[in-house]
Structure prediction request, 293 residues.
Amino acid sequence: MIPKEILKKVKRIEISTRGLVNEIFSGEYHSVFKGRGMSFAEVREYQYGDDIRSIDWNVTARTGTPFIKINEEERELTVMLVVDVSASGNFGTRDRMKAEVAVEICALLAFSAIKNNDKVGLIIFSDRIEQFVPPRKGRKHVLRVLRELLYHKPEGRGTDIAGALEYLSHVTKRRAVVFLVSDFLSPDYQKELSVAGRRHDVVAIRIGDDRETEIPRIGLVEFEDAETGEQLVVDTSSREFQKAFAELTEARESARESLFRKTKVDVVDVKAHEQYVEALMNFFKNRARRIRA
Prediction:
């Protein structure tokens, strides 16, 4: 039995995202994401000027006359939400935790998808696969996806993006639009991301917090790694600490940016304390420009 407070949250999120989907995201979403490819429609006799690579050799052999395959673009998409629920998501230094923002973004994307008659599926992961919801259409299904995200209690604390992407390849055989929602604080996953990027249209939605890249000078502070439980006391006022932290942050960010460039995966950067709508809209607009170019 799902608690009433979870059901209330689902309803509140649905109401808050409905206006955005209707007024803003429906058109942007539809224009940016094409169908998952070309599907077979029919065959017809070869005509002068046709691409010989389209010849259907089986039909040609049976009839003795050259025939070609006619394909058409498939408008229906499968949208997979691959969502990180590791312990580091339970971090936020202002109004909201990263995990809360992740759910809201998933809701917006899911409702945009069903408005365009697309299927929506869900993979919840930490350092293991926590749950899989096969893709389906309809409002009731999306509400189920949101309930699973809000009600799910993770068994793992760490993050294994490589494992999540490997699992995706097993359960999603046809091309899909994949939104990988995470803070991307995970061991190496370049190989798996590269493979997923070739098979699917992958968009990385990276959710962060300012305090992960900048720590104020407030003296001695005890830090704890949410995923490993490791604790460390540091003097945040120390020049040496501030310098080392800045260098570590820069190196980590540079490595991630390089990884996304190499794998040719689009990235949307979202801060937990900021409005994510602008970041998503900028992504849609920039991608639409690339498609038209």
